[in-house]
Amino acid sequence: MRVEFTVLLGLYILAGMLLALISRRYFTRNLRDYYTTSSRLGALLSAGTYAATTYSAFMMVGLVGMTYATGVGALGFELLYLASTVILLSTIGYRIWMLSREYKWIAPSQMLGDLYNSNVLSLIVAAIYLFAMIPYLAAQIQGLRAMFSYGGLGSAEATVISAILVYLWIFIAGMWSVALTDTYQGFLMLTGGLLYLCWALHYAPASGVSSTELFRVLSSSGYLGLTSFWSFTTFLAYTLPWAFFAVTNPQVVVRLYVPRDERAYKKSVTYFYFYGFLYTLIVVLIGLVAAGLALRGVIPQGMQWDSVTPCLLNSMHPLLGSFIAVTVIAAAVSTANSIVLAVSGSVVSLLTRRTLTLARTIDAVLVAASAIVALMGVGFIVDLSVLTSVILLPLAPVTILGAYKHNRTSKVKAHFTIMSLIIGVGLGTYYALVLGPRRAFREVVSGLPISAWILLVSGLVLLVGFPRGSYL
């Protein structure tokens, strides 16, 4: 095991533990505080936990590799996600925040059940979360395993350490400790990205590839434009699921509940935008440098996407490589514990007897399940991450219409809402099982990717029920 990695990992864990323990002074030990801080976070912590939860191991491992393989089109894919998220946060997200202050939600499944006046809908949404978040958890664990492997740990050791970190920072003070450690980890992620980029820009000339030569070879090879990979249907397949990420994925939806007031909410959106824009540019530039180095024969061409960052880390000084590896671990841990907390809240909100002990027990079960996933060989991080959002896509129209039409509820609407979710999720699951996660979200049927059909079909079924029924 690398000494540098061991020391930096220990310092990272120690600092995170101290912050988690500090957060206990704000924790009032009730369930709403455990899951949402009782809506008491300021702008900085709200933005920090949102950013760290959103930008996972996918960025430094998946997006670097995607850019290396497919060129600058990956920047358009990621910036469209950022723009869509900011638009959603400024519109539907703000409305959800206002409603959350009235309804005191602890989970998105509870929110949708209240908006449609249907306990059955809450149950179905919670079940969808349990099913659909497994690939996304797998993506985080894969990122952790790759980085721990760099440090010299085997899969079993990496899994144990990851599971302990994920659970411990939830157990200490719920959302309070997660929000504080998320903000700390978000800072580490950005710092690691900047150091990674500075190293890459220095490594190219040191390897005999000047900046001018790097630009020339990228341009002549088409990497600074849309490569053949980025056909219209492929671009749509990748971007459409993530365009609605802010209203479909439970770990980010629940973060709409946490800002303490309107000013904190609006400032948090602004902070998130600047963080996301800067982090995206950094990561894509790293991927482009890696592509140029591969074209000049400095590093191998044709590597799997998830192998690019580990390959580059091995070319760095061990101290720098270890620091960047730890920042990737931080990104994965922040997203993983946020997923566990959000899914746990969805389960707890269904129960008539809700206790903090029960919540922590459910958290432990979910972490144990994610540890098992960590020991399985699953597909690409990018594929798995987007596949989760494909399966959750039917929740987008349900959430948007529910938030704006929540005072016009009918039994017929609830029934059609349930139908739209079952059909949409079923369609996504069918193609995932038949084609596998690597191909499912890129499959084109009658000129459109599966994600577009899921959104269209589930949205149409939902709209059929909205003009109908007597209101209650």
A few lines on this structure:
The chain has helices at residues 3-23, 31-36, 43-54, 57-70, 73-90, 92-103, 108-115, 119-151, 155-171, 175-206, 211-220, 232-243, 245-248, 250-253, 262-295, 308-313, 318-348, 356-374, 381-392, 395-404, 411-435, 437-440, 450-465; strands at residues 444-445, 448-449. By secondary structure, it is mostly helical.
Describe this structure in words.
The protein has 472 residues and is mainly alpha-helical. It has a single domain, classed as Up-down Bundle (Sodium/glucose cotransporter), CATH 1.20.1730.10. The protein is 76% helix and 1% strand. The chain has 23 helices and 2 strands. It has helices at residues 3-23, 31-36, 43-54, 57-70, 73-90, 92-103, 108-115, 119-151, 155-171, 175-206, 211-220, 232-243, 245-248, 250-253, 262-295, 308-313, 318-348, 356-374, 381-392, 395-404, 411-435, 437-440, 450-465; strands at residues 444-445, 448-449. The chain has a two-stranded antiparallel sheet with strand order 1-2. Strand 1 (444-445) and strand 2 form a beta hairpin. Helix 4 (57-70) packs across helix 15 and helix 9 packs across helix 17 (318-348). The longest helix has 34 residues, at 262-295. It is globular and about 70 Å long. The N and C termini lie far apart (64 Å). The model has no long low-confidence stretch (mean pLDDT 90).
How are the SSEs ordered, and which strands pair?
Elements: H1 3-23, H2 31-36, H3 43-54, H4 57-70, H5 73-90, H6 92-103, H7 108-115, H8 119-151, H9 155-171, H10 175-206, H11 211-220, H12 232-243, H13 245-248, H14 250-253, H15 262-295, H16 308-313, H17 318-348, H18 356-374, H19 381-392, H20 395-404, H21 411-435, H22 437-440, E1 444-445, E2 448-449, H23 450-465
Helix pairs in contact: 1-10, 1-17, 3-10, 3-15, 3-17, 4-15, 4-17, 5-12, 5-15, 7-8, 8-9, 8-17, 8-18, 8-19, 8-21, 9-17, 9-18, 10-15, 10-17, 11-15, 12-19, 17-18, 19-21, 21-23
